[in-house]
Amino acid sequence: MSSVQLDDALRQLVGVDEALADRVRIAIMIYLVVRGRARFKELQEGLGLTPGNLAFHLKRLEEKGYVKIKRSLLDARGRVVIPTQFGLTALFDLVSLLRRAVEAIVERRGASPQEP
């Protein structure tokens, strides 16, 4: 990867939507990608979050269109969280940018960390 390509990838990474560029929200999205959908309680327990913390992050993701939150037909109190196509695309784009940056690091420094 050339310096220009790396610089381009880093500029794009800096421009990633703040709603997605949060470690908890990235974890939520990855959890949903792997499972396809998850009940609120499952997501909370799976990620070790408090209900309030999870609700806060899901609200941000829902406002940006990354997830949909639906009431469960089987459990009136339960909510099911589903990633949207827009959310999946945004996550995959973020992962691609990170992959490009890591590849550039490995290319320049080798597979193991070394002093600059």
% residues in beta strands: 5-15%
Largest sheet: 3 strands, antiparallel
Task: Report Rg.
Answer: 17 Å
Number of helices, counting only DSSP H or I runs of 4 residues or more:
5
Integer tally of domains: 1
Assign an overall shape: elongated
What is the topology, as strand order, of the major beta sheet? 1-3-2
The number of E-state strands comes to: 3
The helix fraction, in percent, is 55-70%
Can you write the helix and strand succession as a string? HHEHHEEH
**Overall CATH architecture:** Orthogonal Bundle
Backbone structural class: mainly alpha
CATH 4th-level superfamily: Winged helix-like DNA-binding domain superfamily/Winged helix DNA-binding domain
Mean pLDDT: 86
Task: Characterize the structure shown.
The chain has 116 residues and is mainly α. Helices cover 61% and strands 10% of the residues. It has five helices and three strands, in the order ααβααββα. It has a three-stranded antiparallel beta sheet. The protein is elongated.
List the defining traits of the structure above.
116 residues; mainly alpha; Arc Repressor Mutant, subunit A; three-stranded antiparallel β-sheet; 5 helices; 3 strands; elongated
Question: Layout of helices and strands, plus pairs?
Answer:
Elements: H1 3-14, H2 23-35, E1 38-39, H3 40-47, H4 51-63, E2 67-71, E3 79-83, H5 85-109
Antiparallel strand pairs: 1-3, 2-3
Helix pairs in contact: 1-5
